[in-house]
Design brief:
archaeoglobus fulgidus dsm 4304 fold; globular; 168 residues; alpha/beta; 26% strand
Length: 168
């Protein structure tokens, strides 16, 4: 089983969402999950915002999920020097047994071209970073995901669940 995960912070609450899937070309997931966080602290100024890390792990634990791979809306690494982002911290927290692919819609100003992925019908690239899987393999899998637009269908679904506009 693979998961697409996303989170949304709205004021002092948050919601974490996951969509389980088996096939990279699937247009819908096999099961949806969500978790509401009632109290959210403000992030520490000037530090990497890792508030979602315990929520992502809590959603996995609460549903006894042990995915082989997680596609996360966001970054695994923040740069070519592999400065750890949320996805890398998630990979490490899970003991390195779950590969994590980060899919970001915008890069940093110095994002190397090697991390860019152009999907069908769109010119703006996605930024792909990963841990526990080769970058070329990660990009190939994201390219395969259902959806003719820039962002894969299951990533959009996870975002809608995290926003609370679709039930899990």
């Amino acid at each position: 089983m693979k998961l697409v995960m996303d989170f949304q912070i709205q004021g002092d609450t948050a919601r974490v969402a996951a969509v389980a899937f088996d096939d990279w070309v699937a247009f819908e997931g096999t099961k949806n999950y969500s978790l509401r966080i009632e109290h959210v602290e403000k992030p520490a100024k000037g530090e990497l915002d890792l508030r979602a890390l315990p929520w992502l792990v809590q959603l996995l634990d609460a549903n006894r999920l042990q995915p082989e791979l997680i596609v996360l809306d966001g970054f695994v690494h923040l740069d070519a020097q592999e400065t750890p982002g949320l996805g890398r911290r998630l990979h490490d927290t899970l003991g390195g047994r779950t590969a994590v692919i980060g899919v970001a819609k915008t890069g940093f100003k110095d994002t190397p071209e090697q991390f860019e992925l152009h999907r069908e019908e769109e010119t703006a690239p996605l930024v792909i970073t990963c841990a526990g899987i080769d970058l070329g393999a990660a990009k190939a899998r994201v390219r395969m995901m259902h959806g003719r637009k820039r962002v894969p269908t299951l990533l959009k679904l996870a975002a809608r669940i995290a926003k609370g506009s679709v039930d899990a």
